Amino acid sequence: MSETAVTFAKENGKRFVEELKSFLRIPSISTDPERAADVRRAAEFVADELRRIGMENVRLLETSTSETVYAPSSGPAQVVAARNGHPLVYADHMHAVPVNGKPATTVLLYGHYDVQPAEPMEEWKSPPFEPSERDGNLYARGAVDDKGQMWMHVKALESLLATGGGRLPVNIRVIVEGEEEVGGEGIAAFVREHPEQLRADVALVSDSEMFAPDLPTLCVGLRGMIYTEIEARGARSDLHSGMYGGAAPNPFVALAQIIAQLKDATGRILIPHFYDRLCAPSDAELAAWKALPFDEEVYRETEVGSTVLTGEPGFSVLERTWARPTLDVHGIAGGFTGAGAKTVIPARALAKVSMRLVPKMTTAESFALYKDYVEAICPAGITLDVRLIHSGDPVVVSTDNPYVRAATSAMYKVFGKETVFVRGGGSIPIVGDFIRELGIPTLLMGFGLPDDNLHAPNEKFHLANFHRGIESIVLFLGSAAEV
Amino acid sequence: MSETAVTFAKENGKRFVEELKSFLRIPSISTDPERAADVRRAAEFVADELRRIGMENVRLLETSTSETVYAPSSGPAQVVAARNGHPLVYADHMHAVPVNGKPATTVLLYGHYDVQPAEPMEEWKSPPFEPSERDGNLYARGAVDDKGQMWMHVKALESLLATGGGRLPVNIRVIVEGEEEVGGEGIAAFVREHPEQLRADVALVSDSEMFAPDLPTLCVGLRGMIYTEIEARGARSDLHSGMYGGAAPNPFVALAQIIAQLKDATGRILIPHFYDRLCAPSDAELAAWKALPFDEEVYRETEVGSTVLTGEPGFSVLERTWARPTLDVHGIAGGFTGAGAKTVIPARALAKVSMRLVPKMTTAESFALYKDYVEAICPAGITLDVRLIHSGDPVVVSTDNPYVRAATSAMYKVFGKETVFVRGGGSIPIVGDFIRELGIPTLLMGFGLPDDNLHAPNEKFHLANFHRGIESIVLFLGSAAEV
């Protein structure tokens, strides 16, 4: 059954890519309130296709979420409570026959149809929402994160249904969200409130990357994250730096002083007790990472492009990005940043600061430690508002699991190579939700590449991996039936 | 002659205000390239009026200047060399008769017709370019800085010409610039290259404020300034903070670390040798400042509105803002500052940082010390470009001068009070140019008030001061003839 489905996928590969292009043309930027209609259009696009290929109970599930909007200059931040969220797309197909007398396996497929903003627009070689094929890659915002990878799931299901007489080897539930890039509040609430609707034996997520081209990869650990805003207020209104410089507090200087005290020059975070619960990787895991094909100098040169790499001494790049907490500043709003000179001491400024967490740190405790510390080091004359924008707990997935073996076996057939186990530095909060609320493991079987420019201009998906991903998923679902 | 001119000014005061409103409706924002045509229109408005009232040799003098444009995201800053600058307006009237056998006095009147940007727009109670009278004040961008105060000069000349049969008590040269808010490169070059065209005995500038309502004020010292940009570059392109956090340098963190090392928690600047040339005010000057009607707590409450005032311990607010160097950050560009969360490590970020200088610090040496220090403390993995955007030397004007006595005598007649001598914390670079290139003193006779919201929303001019300013200038020009 799986082999004929693989043949079907090969024969229809070009059509699959054309369909994906139509999907990528929808600018479903979840963080942009003006794109709400486009985000919904993307949800409907997914639902329509799930219906067309023969999935059942296809529907949009509405969500609600809260949002804080920051006015770019002085004046209070506005909290828009309980705005409508972006809908979830649900579908299922629950007619798999028992195998060897055991109830049929149920697999939960997860993906997201929303994308990051495309800015800075001028750096895209082709427009972000006009997909363009070049050198075997498909360029577009969302090509790999996650529309393209989610589309692999849909096309694997289509290949199986079309060649299996409308039957699937396992029961399938599909849940696709539209708020992954803005914190995923809606799906988190749904998983918490309706776990029975997502009951399954294992979840499959394709929102990660392969460690190297041609190297099948399962990601078995993810960092968590807390994304925060620090708003600093000084004078009542904007003041002239000539007249008031020397007397009025400067919110930018205050934020700089705070940020400079959040981590030291090596990158070690200075928040008291921040590292207390940290659980280091095992010696076996560290040894396996050392064996991976990874050259820090090549990584610096080709991926980062900075003069040197930064981070804590005594830890390798893989340890620093997979298994150490880190802190970054993403932007600082307020004041004057146009061309020329405006001599303003702004009334307020706002910094966007996030931290990555590793097992077994928790988001709630980490944020509390951070907030207490930031407030304790607040400079004179400044009042602060320290807010949590969103968060996700870190996770580790056990490799001692028959579904992991089913996945590695499927990928061996497609790639001809043994799977490597890695971690990811990023955060996929839903994986923690599946563990906590559904009690099921998640397989992070991703087919992106390290140079796919996630969240950056010129995002792409290597099309060979799109096709191999579909075939791997087809074979995995076939093997999962035997577990 | 002066008394009839004062009567004329009183009788025509309402018309003068209406004319000023027409002038204020022109959004002559010199820093905004899209407003270049409006800036020129403002120059022509001034020239037309100078012609109408009977001034001679009225003309626009073209300037050129260089400009650096900062692209908001990564990609190189663009240097637009030698763009056309905003024109100077020149006029003169050189027919004054000798008094007591001495050649007639020549007075150079200076003002500027350009204005600051109006942002944040939403905080204006009436639109910035639709002048609105409320409670005896005229609200508009440029009302007091400097269109309204420059208009006093024009209207004083009109009053004298109209009542003096086309004669003036002194020779007059008028020079009005359109680049004061963007560094005044054009006029600086003109003064340097054509000092003979501006030859005079004394300059009068009305671009400062009164120390308190009803208290005639001459400003006899100004801080200088260097306005800089620090551009920090890390990775080649924007990166995902999950995948690269712990390895990629963060330009925002780097800028924060640099800024936090520029001054200590009390505001003392940490750049080595920055204070070496500083010349403190005399004991007599400090004693006079102590006698001024000034309450630091009222100032904090009504003008600044912060929880506490900041600045170096051991110095009063007036010392800190008039006679101590200070450092401020005006904005930090780059990265993501919209609503929501984008987990980007930006490739670059840019901070706008300025320092105020006091006698006898120099801009060239101060910038060199700053640049060397910033480059020395640059964090690992970051490359910096430290640029000077514009600058002005600090100045002190001697009070031992017959024109100062003419000015205080004129203001005594209008206000019935003795003039106080103060300094200004801001910078008027042209005053230094007049001293250096023309060898003449400048009288800073301003009629703004401390709460006039210069460079901020709801800028205003107290109309009583507009009228008293015209009368004071009329009487000063009459007295200056006797010097």
Topology summary:
Two copies of one chain form a homodimer.
Chain A: H1 2-11, H2 13-24, H3 36-53, E1 56-61, E2 64-69, E3 78-84, E4 88-93, E5 106-112, E6 132-134, E7 137-139, H4 147-163, E8 171-177, H5 185-193, E9 202-205, E10 217-222, E11 224-233, E12 239-240, H6 241-244, H7 251-260, H8 283-291, H9 296-304, H10 317-322, E13 326-333, E14 344-345, E15 348-357, H11 363-376, E16 383-392, E17 395-396, H12 402-415, E18 420-424, H13 429-438, E19 442-444, E20 460-462, H14 463-480
Parallel strand pairs in A: 5-8, 5-9, 9-19, 10-18
Antiparallel strand pairs in A: 1-4, 2-3, 4-8, 6-7, 7-20, 10-17, 11-15, 11-16, 12-14, 13-15
Helix pairs in contact in A: 1-4, 1-14, 2-4, 4-14, 5-13, 12-14
Detailed description of the structure:
The structure is a homodimer of 483-residue chains. Chain A is an alpha+beta fold and 483 residues long. Chain A folds into 2 domains: 307 residues, Zn peptidases (Aminopeptidase, 3-Layer(aba) Sandwich); 127 residues, Alpha-Beta Plaits. The first copy, chain A, has a 6-stranded mixed beta sheet with strand order 1-4-8-5-9-19, sandwiched between helices. In chain A, strands 13-15-11-16 form a 4-stranded antiparallel beta sheet. In chain A, helix 1 runs antiparallel to helix 14, helix 2 packs across helix 4 and helix 12 crosses helix 14. Chain A starts with a helix and ends with a helix. About 3% of the residues of chain A have low confidence. Chains A and B meet through strand 2, strand 12, helix 6, helix 7 and helix 9 of A and strand 2, strand 12, helix 6, helix 7 and helix 9 of B.
